[in-house]
Amino acid sequence: MSQISSSIAETERIAQAEAAAPADAKNVRRAALAGLIGTMLENYDFVIYGTASALIFSKLFFPTISPAAGIIAAFGAYAIGFLARPLGGLFFSHYGEKFGRKWVLVTTLFLMGGATFAIGCLPTYETAGVWAPLLLVLCRFFQGFGAGAEQSGGATLLTETAPLGQRGRLSSLIMVGAAFGTALGAIAWIGAQQLPNEALMSWGWRAIFWSSIVVTIAAFVIRLKLSESPVFLELKKKVDVKNQAPLRVVAKHGKKNVIKVILMNWGVSTQSYTYQVFMISYLINVVGVDTHFVPPVQLAAAIAASFAAFLTGSLSDRFGRRRMTLVLTGILVVTPFLVFPGLNTGSPVLITAIIVFGYMVAAQGVTGVHMSFFPEIFGSRYRYAGVTLGREFSSIIGGGIAPLLCASLLAWCGNSWVPVAIYMAVTMLVSFLATYSLPETLDRDLNTPTDAEWGEARSSAGRA
């Protein structure tokens, strides 16, 4: 018995020594840059598509129906990308657990970048008839399929690579990249809107989608030099990862926490894409703001959001993931009932402040904490699959249908914002309660094969 106790003590001593060992600074920098530029591409793709859905696509791809129905149809095509994300998550998480995080992050780039470039090449309804919207939906599907493992894979690799005490700060760079992508998308649309309307509707919008190939190539070069996650390399020594069935393992051991991550991200995803996509349409079609006003506001909001993501991620290293998430989601339960009256004033200053707030808190602030919180929740055997499935299935019931459902509620209730605000608040309340049910995960040992437990986080009594 004493021999067994000694063996256990020695194993714990080695694990603690490994956890305390300094991380390779070069690998950390590469992982941070790779995660940042990958999500920059993903959000650039999604933002230019979302903006085009509100401003362009209803006229070019759905011209035979009423303007309101055209907006709903364009947002419906937008939602297809979110329906594809969990399918991509299922597919790529399987291989991410078998062959490593790096392989997936290189592969997903080409699907996202290639699909976005292809959208710029599509014929319109005027030249191809019904084939035009069908091809748009197909490209949107592949765009979402590739994005299904992008943020989760980047967050998992970066969290597993970052040194203790810095996981929140470094992993938040994933969402800093997302904010940069939003900013680039806004800049692209600001430039395109300087064109005469005829040029914008013929080739200007296409040039925006073609431009994604530049970011794709840059991200590919960076990711080729990326080192594999040290946690995955350690897992390979203990488990025959190539012959395991990761989805079966996560279904058996991590199902409860996958469901909690889905609920945690539901309200966050809903509000994020409500601010980023639906409110563009609301401002133009209900409030009556000029279309040229929107992209500069998006740009300012995205720049502010990049700082917010880094700040909240850094604060989570000090105060804990759970506490920071509860504070931010608690605020977002209340604010929808203040946001719409502010938008309806038509005040450019107030509208700008509201959109900036939405981007900073809902779009990037909470997710800046989630980037380290979610990977720390799961055990090492199925972390990639757990994070990916939780985030991407929540994208269906969250951001995927949020613009479509908000537009439908608005049309159904005679442009009343109240049902939309209730919808935003209720989904966020669910996210708040799901977060409350989880333990603190701050700096837990990521080599542990089982999920996070109460009291397990390092210095949880004093810091969380």
From TrEMBL:
One Pfam assignment: MFS_1
One cellular component term from this protein's GO annotations in UniProt: plasma membrane
Subcellular locations according to the entry: Cell membrane
Keyword set, alphabetical order: Cell membrane, Membrane, Transmembrane, Transmembrane helix, Transport
Membrane topology: Multi-pass membrane protein
Keyword Transmembrane: yes
GO molecular function: transmembrane transporter activity
Protein name: MFS transporter
Organism: Azospirillum palustre
